[in-house]
Amino acid sequence: MPDISVRIQFTDLLKAVMRLLYSITLKQVISRRFIPKQKFYKGDLRNRSEIDSVFDKEKGIDAVIHFAANSLVGESMTNPLKYYDNNLNGTKVLLQSMVAHEIDKIVFSSTAATYGEPERTPILETDPTNPTNCYGETKKSMERMFYWVEKAHGLRYVSLRYFNACGAHISGKIGEAHNPETHLIPIILQAAQGTRDHISIFGTDYPTSDGTCIRDYIHVTDLAQAHILAVEYLMKGGKSDIFNLGNGVGFSVREVIEKAKEVTQKDIKVVEESRRSGDPAVLIASSDKAKTVLGWKPEYDDLKTIIKTAWNGIQHIPTAIVSEAVFMKNSVYGLILRLVSYGINTGLIEKEDIIYTQNRLLSLFHMDEPDDSCTCLTADNEDTLEEILSGLLDYAYEKRNHSRKYSNISRLI
Q1: Which residues are catalytic?
Q2: pLDDT band at 179, cuts 50/70/90?
């Protein structure tokens, strides 16, 4: 039997492969399944030729909705140049291409982090913007870029400043599936689901009722509707403007955790940690202007409803992905099970660890346990580890039309 160090190396390798495959494959499965009528171009916003190519091919574009940005507050404080390069430089290149192609309307997905520590709550659009983190600073700079491009080239823009986007489509078929996950509500629900050990509270000494940060939450469906309304506003000749989006109430981190316990009926382990750099104590916005000018009417502004839809989405999306791929020849799902089979046949996985290893790999890949109809795992499977991993990588790169084929396991180690 292999010693424990060999078994640990094997497990670590499988985890690395699963994370790689998740990042380049499952997102495409989700996109293909749920929004099949949309055309998708994968590219780098900082690459002018790639943006020009899209605008050249897609004639008659009336407006752009700009979501693309790095958005982790903590990371922005330790790696600010990454945020200036991607967020600011990417927006500059996009605007250059838009001006060249005479596309003169843009809706910008901004952030309430532009305000920093607010002088009052709820925050109004006219309040000062003094970001306390680099992420918010780059978003503010992007807004100023739109302002000056309007002066020079006639661009009209709407900037939507919102707080915590959350929830899932009411059907449960579209929801959050980030890797790694950084948003509060899905992290809490992962802890409830058992795929995460605990939820961390960063800071319990803020000047709030329970010592934890207070934030405004907005359901993703309401958020999408606001972006559509903003495009329509510009199409009708509306002037450039900035709008806050939120529920105007705000909930503390502890309140969100307690509501999640109520919705899921699960115990959720909580670990208290020190503050994160750049986190304001309270962020709550007034959305009166968006409601008056854009006609925005949020339908899912109750925290319990938001968490219910998020919980429904977390439980449904993996099943939908599996049902799409499980019977495909050499499917990712089948190959995961064959990895387990390989571990069993070579003694790398002991009998008592089979179920744990299988479920751990499936959870890393955001998949459910196999049902009885899946016959991908067979007792006499004699695939080599290199063949299985090559199959997984070939599958992933085929899905993204990648020309390189990784057939040598040494390239992964």
Answers
A1: 135
A2: low
